[in-house]
Design a protein that fits this description.
The chain is mostly helical. It has one domain. It contains 12 helices and 2 strands. The chain has a two-stranded parallel sheet. The radius of gyration is 22 Å and the shape is globular. It is a multi-pass membrane protein. Keywords: Cell membrane, Membrane, Protein transport, Translocation, Transmembrane, Transmembrane helix, Transport. Belongs to the TatC family.
Length: about 270
């Protein structure tokens, strides 16, 4: 049966189309999750648990940076005094499944964007439809950059902070597998989704829900929130907090710029 035009589709037709978008996206995630099963040793030992070792790239980078800035060994990490333990019978099985699904979601993200674009494209103008490749490409790049930011910056900073913070020498850090995996999932997903902010602002501005003036008005509040987040997830030193905060501030500034460009183009089209 030929596909209906947008004007011919009822509400139930839209729901049916959305259902198939979800089905195809879920299938893609499951396929990529199954693929990660064959590299699960590398996924867990080298990637997921990489930030638990002092030899992790980020720790070595900060150590070299501290030497170049003349701080000697002030932020060098030679030991992470904690262990990760499993306290539930099915804990390792559950974590294995969920992390494979998370990896499947990250790897299939461009395809999910493609499905979303196909779903919303009938409501767009022909000129806007031509930007499909650009939209998918930019959104995917931003998402992957956010995931890398979460993995190489947020996770090691957080691990280092909680591992070295102690209220007394009597207390030894023994983290549960669930809490560590939760940190990994939250950091990479939050990083990936936060880096999608320029794309979200683009569409919100197109819909008239956000303006550059609004974003600029609340800029100082955004800065405060970003600095608080940076202070929470990093050790108590200015260098680490700055490294975390700067990319987040840049993303917010880029979002303001994109909002301005959208408003300017809309004024040209209407004028």
């Amino acid at each position: 049966m030929a596909k209906k035009n947008l004007n011919e589709m009822s509400f139930l037709d839209h729901l049916e189309e959305l259902r198939w978008v979800l089905v195809r996206s879920t299938t893609a995630i499951l396929i990529m999750a199954f693929v990660t099963y064959f590299v699960s040793d590398f996924l867990f030992n080298d990637i997921i648990f990489g930030p638990t070792r002092p030899s992790f790239f980020t720790y070595r980078f900060f150590c070299d940076l501290s030497h170049q800035l003349g701080f000697v060994d002030s932020i060098c990490i030679t030991e992470l005094p904690f262990i990760i333990q499993n306290t539930q019978m099915e804990g390792q099985v559950n974590m294995f499944v969920w992390m494979c699904l998370l990896a499947g979601f990250i790897l299939s993200f461009p395809y999910i964007l493609f499905e979303v674009w196909k779903f919303i494209s009938p409501a767009l103008y022909d000129q806007e439809k031509k930007g499909a490749k650009f939209f998918i490409g930019v959104s995917s790049v931003l998402f992957f950059l956010g995931v890398l930011f979460g993995y190489f910056i947020i996770i090691p900073m957080s691990v280092n902070f909680v591992a070295t913070f102690t209220v007394s020498d009597v207390v030894k850090n023994q983290f549960t597998l669930e809490s560590y995996i939760g940190l990994v999932k939250t950091s990479v997903l939050a990083g990936g989704l936060f880096f999608e902010l320029p794309i979200v602002i683009y569409f919100l501005t197109k819909l008239g829900l956000v303006t550059p003036e609004f974003l600029r008005k609340y800029w100082k509040y955004a800065v405060i929130i970003i600095l608080i987040v940076a202070a929470i997830v990093t050790p108590p030193d200015v260098v680490s907090q700055t490294i975390v905060a700067i990319p987040m501030l840049l993303i917010y500034e880029v979002s303001i710029l994109i909002s301005k460009l959208v408003v300017r183009n809309q004024k040209k089209q209407n004028g």
